[in-house]
Amino acid sequence: MEIERKFKIRNLPEKLDQYAFHTIEQAYLCINPVVRIRRQDNQYILTYKSTGLMAREEYNLPLNEEAYAHLKAKADGVILSKTRYLIPLSGNLTAELDIFDKPYEGLVIAEVEFSSVDEANAFTPPDWFGEDVTGSGQYHNSTLSRIQP
Question: Which CA distances in Å does 144 have to 46, 62, 138, 147?
Fold first, then answer.
């Protein structure tokens, strides 16, 4: 079960370059249910996600580079690319700060994953977070893959 809240970002945190990061490319084979392929650095993953906004089932399976390339050619919509920074937060949480490349250059979203819905509902975001967009499917990456900005 994936339980996460999603936020637009008001201001980037200081010294962003001091945090660990990943380079991500992802594409969608289907959005209902969500079937996604992702290259994260040199890892390749096939993901299935059920419906939902804050809480939903998620299953990840490893791919190799050849399988990723084969499936990428079959992807629908925009292939997303972004840099994901891993920023520690209080309470042993991590903000996954995504800075998108074209065609979504300028879009910055943070996701925070939780171990329970109660923990997610009790979360107080740091000051640099902006609008909570958890309840909007508009900022799901699967939705972004379908819309040209």
Answer: 18, 24, 7, 5
CB atoms under 10 Å from CB of 85, counted, come to 22
SS3 109: strand
Q: What is the pTM of this model?
A: 0.92
Q: Is 25 helix (H, G, I), strand (E, B) or coil?
A: strand
Residue with tokens 């390339």: 69
Q: What is the mean pLDDT of each run of 10 residues along the chain (149 residues)?
A: 94 94 97 95 96 88 98 95 97 97 96 97 96 92 84
- Catalytic amino acids? 28
Question: Which are the contacts of 82, defined by CB distance < 8 A and separation ≥ 6?
Answer: 24, 98, 99, 100, 101, 104
| Under 8 Å between Cβ of 5 and 54 | yes
**Domain 2-144 adopts which CATH fold?**
Hypothetical Protein Pfu-838710-001 (2.40.320)
**What 3-state DSSP class applies to 47?**
strand
Strands 129-132 and 108-113: unpaired
